């Protein structure tokens, strides 16, 4: 449906690239994969059928006017139809429970160029010779790193003027090598979490993920939480460099492992995209993070950053670019932008609520018109931190708990079915929900006095409920939930719930208006939505509107790796999404106090929960 | 004569800058110099008279509507007249014998910006805060080096949000420092000659040259001529790095000396512009120069190059840019582009001939329609090389020679009037001309047999003419011109003259058409134009059309340092000027043979010379 002027002499595949139309070309245009199918009526305006075309296309297809775009050279005016199976936008990126379509249009692409040999009649300098050949192929003016230019004469002559040129954003030549050797073009996306790093190695031509690697964030030795790392960076001599060095080193190991697993050479990794919360973002880039920890919490930069991998010490291709997603505010970082990008709430008519629970938790409310956000440092309790028997989501972690309302007996499930080692975040939510449902704790999270069960006991003045007896556990100790644990959970849930309430009020959105509730972050993976609703962590909406979308941070980073327009969208989002500073908001304190109740001080906001409780307790 | 929309709240000086109108502002807009005079009728649309204005402007001027642009804030629509004395284009750059006007518009400028302090109500990140403040001042979106961004938070807070911002091309912030301290903005221009380096240190605000330093090119130890240096770079392990290192080291010393002399801090030097022939250009930038020496003589790059000073190891400001002028062809380098730029032949209606005599000599013929060029390796004989008593233009060098046609007695002048040490290029031309005029040599440069003077003698089979007797000389030896010396000179002059002939023929230009003949290069400084004409080095045109324009290479480099539009012009010229490869030209050989005669085989081309000779010899 689009008219495009095309230079004669280009293949249709090249012409489509120039025109910004994505056509699949897994073999890179060598006539081998048969993926670049297109339909043309005016066969006379194209070069005659190539050998590959007669080999790869059935006679029916040929009769119907099918051709391979990479084999058809434009000789005159043509109208081209790109059938759905050849369209690049048909690729999907899959985060757990989430699927978004977008056009595969990575910043890095490689083209093969054959240069005319210099002669006394054509003494065009090497660089201009390359530029001219690229212009012939429809590219604009390009730049080149000084160091690459120094090598260019040797490379061109050793390649005998037949070269593969790797371009970044179609504006910079980042590599020139021998042409006609299929070596692949790869990229990596990295999520720098406070506690965990995740790396995906991606084939930039197909969009496929080749390898996924994770490792604990080695900065953890300088503090589990963000504030202690910021302090270390701010006040210890060389602290920032050290923290930066640790994360870069860890990233280099992940890249090495992923490349080994996928059989990819490190120096064919031409771009890396990175997300992380603001503190991780700053430390990764070597920006002093100090101001993030003191009012008024000012970041060094909001917009996305492009920096050469080697300036950061990341060992991929010498001139590879690192694209770091933009931030929104001092506490709402690139990972949050990635969440919004991956869930697509910014392009939906529907009103959505998005919660990313992590060491810090971010909340978004909005739709394509407008999105507002807030952030709270609460959340690590949901990762099992600060709890006596809290553990991360490791083998043996109790991930589901049910309590019989009649005899208070406990059923639980552990990760990998192993003997229990502790309770992970999702099960803590279950525990609080079940204890409340059975009437073992009151709406303030205190154990009721008059209950008779051997699972309740008092130790050093603290009441505890035994979830698993010591003879069942892997630790040889009873695994319990204490009143103190419950209070930790309630503080965290109240902070998040108050953030949600403030944003919903700001946007004048009621529970009925919320078409979607997305829960991002690894925490969501095991979470029982009924329990989350029961304790009042989320608003009372029908459960079928809730999606657990997993690590949307890495999904968003990968979308930016594979699509230039997603990068633009990310920067637009970082500008557009408004930030509400909760501590400065007049309603926050009251909402927080109200949310310290289970499910809430104002029970009329939780009709579903009230109904359920009365049914259970009535039974 | 130009209507410009202006933001309210800017001073007229700022508004003029945004609009690209150059107004003098020697004090940097502090109301101290009184140079930014402008005339405005609608005084009501401007802020009231400031104290500086009442102090600096006479009551007559005030009555006539004069104001200081830096003191007048725009409040509404105004029409501004910029009187000639305030216009920046009135600045001149002076090469010897050459004066060109252009607008002072350096790539580097510094602005003082006062940023709003962050608060809980304005948590804009540091970088965006700076960008916004610059936008308020009329600047576009800017970039910043990664390493500077890392320091930005500390700089802004130490400066208490009052900063001096140094911008390059209005697109990159290269420095941020404490505001309100007048520290100056400087640049340097460098001519990398095969035998000599010249550096000018320049005040970028006034356009004034503060210091000039020269030094021998230290690469000379690896060969006086270009070819041996190219070979050293191409075939010796590490040769290119060594040659590059030598020239960078020498440049660093020159910068240090110049800065010391001018009392300027090295890190206030924010840009460097560089010219040199193609080989010097390549070696300076670390590009392999090998292909320049083998057919088809292909350069690495034609266009101008911008590269960070620190990538080259040049010790000026950390993020200073180095602008290297473009080349034209394998043998016509950035220095030649500078020659054309400085002489302005590209914008004249008149047809000009431009000759730059050096180790290599370049010739240009053309006007604003079209210019063609050629190059010949001949020329070093004119610098005194390859001659028995040849010396450079040092103290004691004989620079002028006259021979009495009656008794063959010699009058000479030496540089600084010292005892003679040898003969420099210009005097060699004199010598050949005078010997020929007196009939001592024939039209092939051979001494005539039948002349009787004690100044003529034969040594080891070579005839020599004594210019200065040993008791007059500083060397204690007779200073002579031999027949072999004369042949060297004739070979060089024939090559240059043949180049001129080929270009004039190509452009169908006759002697009458040539309105100007520019002789560039230090050689020209002492050259007697009559002698040059007499030996047939230049075409037979009236002497008043000849100008000696000195080191136009450095003049062109300085014009690029001081003017962005000159940079654009340089790149356009490098694209536009056609190059004629003499060795491949069908007429070159014949023209060369013809030019081996004095003044020329075809005497009808030299009527003035014929007349003169017959007058002298007839006398
Ligand atoms: S791109 Fe593979 S056959 Fe055309
Ligand atoms: S710029 Fe000096 S007085 Fe205005």
From TrEMBL, chains A, B:
PROSITE patterns: 2FE2S_FER_2 (PS51085). GO terms for molecular function: iron-sulfur cluster binding. InterPro entries: 2Fe-2S_ferredoxin-like_sf (IPR036010), 2Fe-2S_ferredoxin-type (IPR001041), ATPase_NBD (IPR043129), Beta-grasp_dom_sf (IPR012675), Corrinoid_activation_enz (IPR052911), Raco-like_middle (IPR041414), Raco-like_middle_sf (IPR042259), RACo_C (IPR027980). Pfam families: Fer2, RACo_C_ter, RACo_linker, Raco_middle. It comes from the Archaea. Residues 1-86 form the 2Fe-2S ferredoxin-type domain. PANTHER family: IRON-SULFUR CLUSTER PROTEIN, IRON-SULFUR CLUSTER-BINDING PROTEIN-RELATED. This is DUF4445 domain-containing protein. It comes from Thermofilum pendens.
């Amino acid at each position: 449906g689009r008219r495009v002027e095309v230079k004669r002499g280009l293949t249709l595949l090249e012409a489509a690239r120039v025109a910004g139309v994505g056509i699949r070309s897994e073999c890179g245009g060598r006539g081998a994969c048969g993926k670049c199918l297109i339909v043309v009526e005016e066969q006379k305006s194209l070069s005659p059928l190539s050998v590959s075309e007669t080999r790869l296309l059935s006679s029916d297809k040929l009769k119907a006017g099918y051709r391979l775009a990479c084999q058809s050279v434009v000789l005159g005016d043509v109208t081209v139809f790109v059938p759905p199976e050849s369209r690049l936008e048909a690729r999907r990126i899959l985060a757990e429970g989430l699927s978004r379509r977008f056009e595969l249009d990575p910043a890095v692409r490689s083209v093969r160029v054959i240069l005319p040999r210099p002669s006394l009649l054509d003494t065009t300098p090497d660089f201009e010779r390359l530029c001219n050949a690229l212009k012939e192929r429809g590219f604009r003016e390009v730049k080149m790193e000084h160091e690459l230019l120094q090598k260019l004469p040797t490379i061109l002559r050793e390649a005998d003027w037949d070269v593969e040129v790797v371009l970044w954003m179609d504006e910079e030549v980042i590599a020139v090598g021998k042409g006609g050797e299929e070596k692949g073009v790869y990229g990596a996306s990295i999520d720098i979490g406070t506690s965990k790093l995740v790396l995906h190695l991606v084939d930039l031509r197909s969009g496929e993920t080749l390898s996924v690697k994770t490792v604990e964030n080695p900065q953890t030795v300088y503090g589990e939480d963000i504030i202690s790392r910021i302090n270390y960076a701010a006040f210890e001599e060389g602290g920032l460099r050290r923290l930066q060095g640790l994360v870069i080193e860890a990233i280099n190991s992940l890249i090495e492992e992923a490349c080994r697993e996928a059989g990819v050479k490190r120096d064919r990794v031409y771009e890396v995209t990175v997300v992380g919360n603001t503190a991780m973002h700053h430390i990764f880039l070597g920006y002093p993070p100090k101001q993030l920890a003191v009012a008024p919490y000012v970041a060094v930069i909001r917009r996305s950053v492009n920096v050469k991998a080697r300036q950061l010490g990341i060992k991929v291709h010498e001139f590879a670019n690192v694209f770091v997603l933009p931030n929104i505010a001092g506490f709402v970082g690139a990972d949050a932008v990635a969440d919004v990008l991956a869930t697509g709430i910014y392009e939906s008519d529907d009103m959505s609520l998005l919660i990313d629970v992590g060491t810090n938790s971010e909340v978004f409310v909005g739709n394509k018109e407008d999105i507002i956000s807030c952030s709270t440092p609460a959340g690590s309790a949901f990762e099992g931190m600060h709890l006596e028997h809290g553990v991360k989501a490791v083998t043996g972690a109790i991930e589901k708990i049910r309590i019989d309302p009649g005899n208070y007996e406990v059923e639980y499930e552990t990760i990998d079915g192993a003997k229990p080692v502790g309770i992970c975040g999702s099960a803590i939510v279950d525990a609080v929900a079940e204890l409340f449902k059975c009437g073992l704790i009151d709406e303030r999270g205190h154990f009721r006095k008059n209950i008779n069960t051997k699972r309740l006991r008092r130790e050093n003045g603290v009441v505890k409920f035994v979830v698993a007896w010591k003879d069942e556990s892997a630790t040889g100790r009873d695994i319990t939930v204490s009143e103190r644990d419950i209070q930790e959970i309630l503080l965290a849930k109240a902070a998040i719930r108050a953030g949600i309430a403030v944003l919903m009020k700001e946007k004048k959105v009621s529970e009925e208006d919320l078409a979607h509730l997305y829960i991002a972050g690894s925490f969501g993976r095991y979470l029982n939505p009924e329990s989350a609703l029961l304790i009042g962590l989320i608003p009372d909406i029908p459960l079928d509107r809730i999606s657990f979308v997993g690590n949307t941070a890495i999904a968003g980073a990968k979308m930016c790796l594979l699509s230039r327009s997603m990068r633009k969208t990310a920067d637009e989002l970082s500008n557009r999404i408004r930030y509400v500073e909760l501590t400065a908001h007049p309603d926050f304190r009251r909402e927080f106090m109200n949310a310290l109740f289970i499910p809430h001080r104002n029970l009329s906001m939780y009709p579903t929960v009230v109904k359920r409780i009365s049914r259970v307790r009535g039974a």
